[in-house]
Task: inverse folding
């Protein structure tokens, strides 16, 4: 087992090394330049489409807003609560700056993913709209690239059981046991039953849940963070300056913080940024493909708002709480660091983090069940859907009680492996993305005139 763990750690360090980070950032930057900064310039347009997307009557399974909520439910959670804290604990405040950069170029990546998902989606044997990287590889790049779509679907199907299932169940069980003294197996069983009641209804029931729970929990979490920020408002400019200077000069050791060089800030900022918003992994477009829309561009702009909300808004608020309270200097890390910071900032702040973790993890589980299910369907057909759902809920119980160090490593490697086919497809289909975008906004301009 130790040999296997060491081998996986070595593979993980390679697949998430400088080459992968450069590919993720490079793809986002290339798409941003090719789109002439459209995702950043049209954030207001994206918000408008997001709000208009609450009601839609066009062909599809769920509204554009529900598609966004589903994709956000898979990203807002451990990445925002624990991922930001880990980035700061390992890379210093400067890591937050690189999370911002990752998000800004990641908006173009997420835009392209959602656009292509709608443009190349299909209707399956049971009349459901299905799509994602495996479909835009198959239908956009042609038959000779079909193997690349199969690779993505295989890696994503297996990775879902890690990042979207056992890891999340374990995090919930740990939080509940620590704060409420509930045995992990009880949490696992209850979680499995609740998840099954949702996913048995497919994407429509998942979307109905996420469009209510995700905005509500995000608002509660952000209000808690805002209270801490406002209480420490005079120190906010210094905290922001610390983030920017730390990105280029590193951060000296202080208190329990061991210090971090510029490379550490860059590495952990980019890695945690990608983990938080999943831009480039190829998971979110699976949800966006089910949207009720006939416009790939409009859904693309809705999709890019997920990255903006997740990282620029929620992660920044978490980071400011950690920095303003001084908790980052204690040597603590992960969700425990965020919980400590909130508790120092406001009375009972740790409960904001605790219940945030529980609800965010729950919605992550149901969203990733859909991602994995669609990948399994691509590989084996519709007959695999129900067996996959049953396996999904069984593994939640096991995940709640198991030691997941090995699962973490496997999921980490597979996340990188699923990103590679997706990024190749985004670069290969970038010309289509640029052309469809130009045509859309030219037509909108003509209609306005």
Result:
């Amino acid at each position: 087992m130790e040999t296997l763990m060491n081998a996986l750690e070595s593979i993980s360090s390679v697949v998430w090394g400088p080459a992968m980070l450069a590919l993720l950032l490079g793809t986002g930057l290339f798409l941003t330049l090719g789109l002439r900064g459209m995702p950043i310039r049209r954030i207001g347009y994206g918000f408008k489409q997001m709000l208009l997307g609450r009601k839609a009557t066009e062909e599809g399974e769920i509204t554009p807003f529900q598609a966004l909520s589903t994709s956000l439910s898979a990203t807002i959670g451990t990445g925002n609560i624990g991922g930001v804290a880990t980035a700061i604990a390992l890379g210093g405040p400067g890591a937050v700056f690189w999370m911002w950069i990752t998000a800004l170029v990641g908006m173009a990546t997420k835009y392209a993913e959602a656009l292509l998902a709608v443009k190349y989606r299909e209707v399956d044997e049971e009349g459901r709209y299905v799509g994602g990287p495996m479909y835009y590889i198959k239908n956009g790049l042609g038959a000779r690239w079909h193997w690349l779509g199969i690779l993505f679907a295989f890696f994503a199907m297996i990775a879902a059981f890690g990042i979207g299932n056992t890891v999340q169940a374990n995090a919930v069980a740990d939080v509940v046991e620590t704060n409420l003294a509930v045995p992990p197996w009880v949490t696992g069983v209850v979680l499995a039953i609740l998840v099954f009641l949702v996913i048995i209804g497919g994407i429509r029931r998942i979307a109905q849940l996420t469009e209510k729970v995700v905005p509500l929990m995000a608002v509660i979490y952000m209000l808690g963070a805002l209270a801490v920020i406002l209480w420490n408002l005079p120190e906010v400019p210094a905290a922001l300056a610390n983030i920017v200077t730390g990105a280029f000069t590193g951060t000296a050791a202080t208190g329990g913080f061991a210090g971090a060089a510029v490379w550490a800030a860059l590495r952990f900022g980019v890695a945690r940024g990608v983990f938080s918003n999943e831009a480039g992994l190829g998971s979110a477009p699976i949800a966006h493909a089910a949207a009720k829309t006939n416009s790939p561009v409009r859904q693309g702009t809705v999709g890019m708002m997920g990255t903006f909300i997740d990282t620029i808004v929620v992660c920044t608020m978490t980071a400011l709480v950690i920095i303003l309270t001084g908790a980052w200097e204690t040597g603590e890390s992960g969700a425990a660091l965020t919980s400590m910071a909130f508790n120092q900032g406001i009375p009972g702040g740790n409960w904001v983090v605790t219940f945030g973790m529980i609800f965010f993890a729950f919605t992550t589980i149901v969203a990733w069940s859909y991602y994995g299910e669609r990948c399994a369907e691509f590989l084996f057909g519709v007959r695999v859907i129900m067996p996959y759902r049953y396996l999904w809920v069984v593994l939640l119980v096991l995940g709640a009680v198991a030691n997941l160090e090995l699962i973490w490593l496997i999921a980490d490697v597979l996340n990188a492996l699923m990103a590679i086919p997706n990024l190749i497809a985004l670069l290969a289909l970038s010309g289509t993305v640029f052309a469809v975008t130009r045509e859309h906004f030219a037509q909108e301009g003509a209609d306005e005139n």
Notes: The first helix runs from residue 2 to 15. The radius of gyration is 21 Å. The mean pLDDT is 88. The longest strand covers residues 122-123.
